[in-house]
Structure formats: C-alpha cells, structure tokens
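Data availability excerpt. The first of two example chains:
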Amino acid sequence: MLRAWLTALAVLAGIGFSSAADSKSPLEHDKRWVEARNDLRQGKTAEAKTEFEELLKQYPNEPDLHLFVGMSLLRLRDPRAALSAIKKAIDIDPNHIEARTLLGYVELEVRGDADAAIKEYSKVIELRPDLPEAYSNLAVAQKKKGELNEAIVSLNKALERKPDFASAITTRGAIFAEQNKWADARRDFEAALKIDPQDQGALQGLARVLENDRDYAGAQRVLAQLNSRSPNFVYWLDWGRLGLIRFWWILLSIAIALALGGRFKKARTEANG
C-alpha cells in the first residue's frame, strides 16, 4: 500500500509544484521556497522538509508550507505527522483544494476511512465543480466503500469534463468487471489503451477480460506486454498460470479426441462383426 500512495503523492506534488502559493503570497518572492520545492521534486525529501520548516518560522500562516511539510512527511513514511500538517493547512485555508485532496487520499489509502475520504472529495467538488480529477477521486473512494453505481456516476461526470481522462475510463472498466459486465469493461479498457498504451491498469483489466472470455492466448500476450514494460512477479505468475490452463485444455482436447476415436473404432469393429 505504501508504494501505491507514494506514487499518487508524486502526482499531487506535481499539482502543488505548479499551483502552490498564489501571486499575493510572500513565498513567491522567497528563493528558498523555489529551492525547497525543487529539492522535493528531485527526491531530496529530508532536505526539503528542513527547508519548509525553516520557512514556516518566518511564514507560520502560509497553508502551502504546511501542505508541503505534509508531503515531505508522507515521503518520509510518517503519515501521522503528515496528517497533522495537512489539517493545519486546511485550518488556515478551508478552501485549499490541494490540501483537501491530499487529506482525502491519506484518509482512504493510509487510514482506510472511505467515508472521511468521500467527505473531503465532495468538498473539493463543491469548491471546484469543474475539476474532473475531483470526481475521479470521489469515485475511487466510493468504489472502495462498495458504492459501485455511485462511483460510475462520478466517473461519468469526470469524463463529461475530460473525455480523454484515461485513468477514469480504466477505473470505470474495473468497476464494470467487478459487476461482471465484461463487454462494457472491455470497451473501457480498450478505449483507455487507445489514449494511453502504457496504462498498466487498463492492460491488467484487459487481460482479466480476455481470461474471462477464455481467450487465454490473448490474455497471455497482454501480460507479456506488462512484463516487458514493468517486470513484476505477479504478472509472471499470471502468465504462467494461463499457460498451464492452455496446456491443460490442449491435453483435455487430445484426450477427448482419443477417447472418441477409440469408441468410434470399437463401434465399427462391432458393427463389422
């Protein structure tokens, strides 16, 4: 789980790098702010955290600083302290989109509290109803809670605002697969791959659909693609498992053919006396 939410944190950090601190903030004129964010981007997390904390001594009421301290703490694997820093940012600015988004993510992926995540993502939608990512985030929380139909509604809203939103299409495909709506799932996975051929979630989903359709060779080809791009022991195991299934079906077909052939030969012999 930790690797997954650290990966998502990188995306959130990317949002923060581009949008943090409005033009009225004194941080915009402080070179240390730029340097600290660059250090965080380059993976110098401990140094960045120290730099953000030094800036906080001078700017204690800047919510972006508390947010970036929270990001740094997450990367340093201290989610409890990170949560405190993120909530501090929201206390200062209740309408802080990035802080509420990150709080929702931590609530869902670290604390496992889908209801709290839904609350935060719903607030983000209230503040920014035009933001497709907000609906997609809400859908992920709804899916985890088991509210699959509600999640599809949220994803449809995300896609109304951003039709080429590949990850939202993939997530919807995964929900369709969970509902055993295999044709709809396949449509979404293939659509997502047309937008982003590297989408690992869509490739995994497509392999699952093909296996359900008993196209084991097709599923193996997709898993081979995944393995070539991102070697993973789980993908390799699935590839091998499908190979055994294909081999079993070949043996079964041969056995059936031999059995039928034997019966036919016996029947002819008996008929000819």
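And the second chain:
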Amino acid sequence: PATLLLVGFVVIAALSARRITGAVVIGMLLVTVLGWATGAAEFQGVVSAPPSLSTFLSLDLASAFDLSMVTVVLTLLLVDVFDTAGTLVGVANRAGMLDENGHLPRLRKALLADSSATAIGALLGTSSTTSYIESAAGVEAGGRTGLASVTTALLFLLCLFIAPLAQSIPAFATGAALLFVACIMARALEDLDWANVTEATPAVVTALAVPLSYSIADGIGLGFITYAAIKLVSGHGRECPAAVYVVAAIFVLKFAFLG
C-alpha cells in the first residue's frame, strides 16, 4: 500500500504539473485499479440500497440537558468552529478569494451554511457535516464557484446508491490525494514574515501540530497559545488583540481539562 500511495502521489503531482484537469481524480482511480489488480484492495461491488433511516430524528433530548454534556458541547463547539475557520481560510487563500487584508469576504454566510449543515446532519444521525481541507483538491482542479459545491452535493447524493463502489476506493488512494493537498497548502508558508520570529514561529508550530495531532482545531489552538506566549514574553504583547489572549486561554483550559 505504501508503494501504491507513492505512485499515486507522483502521478497526481506529474499530471498537475502538466496542467491536466482532474489530476487528483485520475491519480486516485489509477491507484485504485492497481490496488484491485494486485490484491492490495478489494472491489466490493457497485450498487446497493440506501442505508437505513432509523437514525432520522432519533434524538435523546433528555440527555442533552445533563450537566456532563456541557463538556461535550464545548469540545464539539471548539473543534467545529476552528476546524471550519481554518479550512475556509486555507482553501480560500489557495483559490485566491481572500481580500487585500487576508480576510474572507462573506465569511458570516459561509459559517452559517456550515453550522446549518452540522445541525441538519445531527438530525439525520450523521457525523459532523462540515467543510473539509480536502476541498483544496477541488480548487486545484479549477473549482471556484458555488456550482462546484452543488455538483459535489449531487455526487454525494449519488453515493447513497453506489456506497460499495465508494468503499472500494482504498485508503492509500485517498492518502495520495491528501498528501498532494498538503503540498498545495504548504505553498502558503512562503507568505510568512520569516524575518519576524514572533510571527513565523507560531505559524510553523501550527503547521506541524495540525497533522501530528490529527486535528485542525488543536493545531490552531497550539498556534494561538504559542503566538500569545511569544508575543507576551518577548515584550510585544501589545501587538496582540485581546481576543488572541482570550482564545489562547480557552485552549489552555481545553487542553488541560478536556484533552
């Protein structure tokens, strides 16, 4: 599998360098077929009936008011908010959609769409429905408008009926795509002010912490803590808005008591 992952990554990168549309999809399909042929992956079929809807509106409202659920809600809130914010800014930066100040226009609407999807997903009994960093692959393929999102949604709807085919795509195929996405996102590091240690160091900590912690939110949290601490200790504390210290303190409490 490791060899096939490397093959997939090389194919995707090479096709992307040649500006071939759909490089990520082509690379994943090629490696998937190779996996089936070599026995490294199993073909599980094509069509199946949609999954059961038994989880639809199957809510335990009484437990939601239990005091022990407070920590669960706070944890999910922190993870979802910072995962989404980090993903939106990162993907938008790659798509060239940030303004001259590095801000994402209409961020409020994007967060509203994300939070609405999360709430609806909970009613359906699914895992958190949110934005994912893998969207950078779509941006790299040329996706820039809402039409790309609508097309993706329709394809997800189709997957309800071809779940076995989707499950036949092995982890090393998607891993090759994710490795390529990581390379794409790493390009943003060139925009750092490397001459300013108080700015560059927290960014590097964040970039390393995200993959090592398997969490965008935890990576961003460590970045906030590092940024606030370095600014404060180096005598540049006034350069930080009060909100930075508040968020850093929240993450310190989160790591200390919630893990």
